[in-house]
Structure to design on (246 residues):
């Protein structure tokens, strides 16, 4: 992944670098999201839950685990500190690693996103999943539009995928955003926005906004620093607009 200045120095010395986004991958997109452990959801009530329509309610709070956000990791990563907060997160124009069957790629450009959460570490095997989530109160009869920005580094040898969703109180998916893909060994860092809209119709309850990162299984080998190295996708906290449902 692409990290802090010190981390960049570490990866440049070892040849490992960060991620980017695109579509049309030659390999299958992982389906590990379906097996991701669901968060411990709040009781079926809005009592004490913040009003997501208020400015800043969904912000990251300037730190990992800030402002009510929580994290969960499935499987081992290296290093073990998986999540990072950075303002801004930058997908740098730094060449990827060469070796372990991987060919070095230079992104050729820089992208960034302010006040971002991103994955600091690299998956050390298949089936690694990282989730970042926050429980919130949504009211029946209101249409909520959540929008977040992302930036990605794409030159490393292992792809990254970002899924975003709003979960019902029972943990099932109520609404989902378009998947962001950071394909392996691809020139050109990318950025964009994702929007999710939801209108609870009959109940006011505690829903959950969730980001999920998964990673490619190509190359299949997890030996050596280049094959472990995965692309990065940094995300902003979602902003929310609210209106009465028609």
């Amino acid at each position: 992944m692409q990290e802090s200045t010190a981390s960049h120095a570490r990866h440049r010395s070892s040849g490992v670098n960060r991620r980017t986004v695109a579509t049309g991958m030659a390999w299958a997109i992982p389906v590990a999201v379906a097996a991701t452990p669901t968060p411990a959801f709040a009781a079926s009530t809005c009592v004490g839950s913040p009003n997501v329509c208020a400015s800043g309610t969904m912000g990251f709070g300037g730190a990992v685990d800030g402002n009510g956000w929580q994290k969960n990791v499935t499987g081992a990563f290296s290093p073990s500190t998986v999540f990072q907060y950075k303002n801004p997160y930058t997908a740098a124009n730094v060449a990827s690693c060469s070796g372990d069957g991987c060919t070095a790629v230079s992104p050729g450009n820089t992208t960034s996103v302010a006040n971002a959460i991103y994955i600091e570490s690299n998956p050390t095997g298949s089936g690694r999943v990282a989730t970042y989530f926050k429980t919130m109160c949504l009211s029946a009869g209101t249409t909520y539009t959540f929008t977040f920005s992302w930036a990605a580094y794409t030159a490393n040898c292992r792809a990254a995928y970002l899924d975003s969703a709003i979960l019902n109180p029972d943990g099932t998916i109520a609404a989902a955003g378009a998947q962001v893909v950071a394909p392996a060994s691809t020139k050109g860092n990318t950025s964009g926005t994702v929007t999710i809209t939801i209108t609870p119709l009959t109940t006011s309850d505690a829903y959950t906004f969730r980001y999920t990162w998964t990673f490619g299984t190509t190359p299949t080998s997890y030996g050596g620093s280049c094959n472990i190295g995965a692309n990065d996708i940094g995300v902003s906290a979602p902003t929310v607009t609210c209106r009465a449902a028609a």
